[in-house]
Design a protein that fits this description.
Belongs to the NAD-dependent glycerol-3-phosphate dehydrogenase family. It is built from 15 helices and eight strands. By secondary structure, it is α/β, with parallel strands linked by helices. The two termini are about 20 Å apart. The protein binds 1,4-dihydronicotinamide adenine dinucleotide and 1,3-dihydroxyacetonephosphate (13P). The site of 1,3-dihydroxyacetonephosphate has 13 residues, from α8, α10 and α11.
Length: about 350
């Protein structure tokens, strides 16, 4: 039995955390950890963003209208942020993780834990983010945790309640990270199934693109429910082929995140899909959406991973064809529905 486990609310801890990424989720998760009692330093690339986080406790560019906890500081010096940190939290776009982390390999503390907040699969290697973290920082899986769940940054920045999953092969590491982010509005559950939790986070973005495209085309709730439900089936199929635990998929990181991302107009993946459905080109849709819509690139790496394992992922395939191979959006539904008859199920 390895489904999401309950974690008691933590007492404040004086853990030191470095958060890599001053974007919407990095800044918001930094606030979550500060509210849970951690000392938090954010690394960002933009001098002005870092200065306003430290001096004005605001990040108007990525989390507008939110007062951040006063103790959070930010720096453009990633090595200084990581030195001495108990937790190194990574919240940058998946495709830039390897290059960024390789430069920090020699400064991460020998017993520090790395925490991936990223929801993507690396192009070219088809690696999950915890694998990229292990390879680029040169650390073992027992020092890595993944945080994934129905966690739209904008809602959490306003301290709206939600839950999440902290996955690690080490229960001790999962508990440490869970305690470092537990608060009255943010409820972590632990789960040893790193593969399943990570795949759920990456592939739900691709499914949200499909839902967005359908909605942009004017299709309704039956279509949305069909894409979400069959999307979960294909996520599960890929996960099981990679050795994930079947119980992860109906949990918070699976169905939970799929629902949040596919339903919310704040989701960048959903929004970008919607723009495509309304007739924008991919370049126009990326520009109109802003922020990181991981599913655009990860759709290709997820499909490659599935193909290498002989796993069928028709929705992911259709998204790749529309975004990257010029398939007209009007042909998407037909591509999905004109498949040969099969029984329902995984
Ligand atoms: N925003 C959200 O609600 C959530 C996001 N995530 C995941 O967190 C990760 C980060 O997403 P967001 O913070 O939302 O993105 P964002 O677009 O808001 O911010 C991205 C940050 O990464 C930096 N960045 C961009 N390119 C970079 C590069 N080449 N090298 C180093 N840094 C770079 C940017 O300067 C910015 O600080 C993604 O994997 C996303 O899927 C996960 C859960 C919730
Ligand atoms: O992962 C998320 C919610 O859990 C955020 O989704 P988007 O990246 O599509 O905004």
């Amino acid at each position: 039995m390895t489904a999401d486990r309950d974690v008691p609310l933590a007492q404040p801890h004086a853990l030191r955390a470095a958060v890599l990424g001053a974007g919407s989720w990095g800044t918001t998760f930094a606030a979550v950890m500060a509210d849970a009692g951690c000392e938090v330093t954010i690394w960002g690339r933009d001098e002005k963003v870092c200065r306003t986080i430290t001096e004005e406790h605001r990040n108007e560019r990525y989390v507008p209208g939110v007062d951040l906890p006063a103790g959070i500081t930010a720096t453009t010096d990633a090595r200084a942020a990581v030195r001495g940190a108990d937790l190194v939290v990574i919240a940058i776009p998946s495709q830039s993780a390897r290059a960024t982390l390789e430069t920090l390999r020699d400064v991460i503390e020998p017993d520090a834990v790395a925490v991936s907040l990223m929801k993507g699969v690396e192009l070219g290697t088809d690696r999950r983010m915890s694998q990229v973290v292990a390879e680029s920082l040169g650390i073992g899986p027992e020092r890595i945790a993944v945080v994934s769940g129905p966690n739209l940054a904008k809602e959490i920045a306003h301290r709206q309640p939600t839950a999440t999953v902290v996955a690690s092969t080490s229960e001790e590491t999962a508990q440490l990270v869970a305690k470092a982010c537990a608060s009255s509005y943010f409820r972590p559950y632990t789960n040893p199934d790193v593969v399943g939790v990570e795949l759920c986070g990456a592939v739900k973005n691709v499914i949200a693109l499909a839902v967005g495209i359908s909605q942009g085309r004017g299709l309704g709730y039956n279509t949305m429910a069909t894409v979400i439900t069959r999307g979960l089936v294909e996520i599960t199929r890929l996960g099981l082929a990679l050795g994930a635990d079947a119980e992860t998929f109906p949990g918070l990181a699976g169905m939970g995140d799929l629902m949040a991302t596919c339903a919310s107009p704040d989701s960048r993946n959903h929004t970008l899909g919607n723009h495509i459905g309304r007739g924008m080109t991919l370049e126009e849709a990326i520009a109109a959406t802003g922020g990181t819509a991981e599913g655009v690139k990860s759709s290709r790496s997820v499909l490659e991973l599935a193909d290498s394992l002989g796993v069928e992922m028709p929705i992911t395939h259709a998204v790749v064809r529309v975004l990257h191979e010029g398939l007209p959006v009007d042909d998407l539904a037909a591509l999905l529905l004109a498949r040969p008859h099969k029984a329902e199920g995984v």
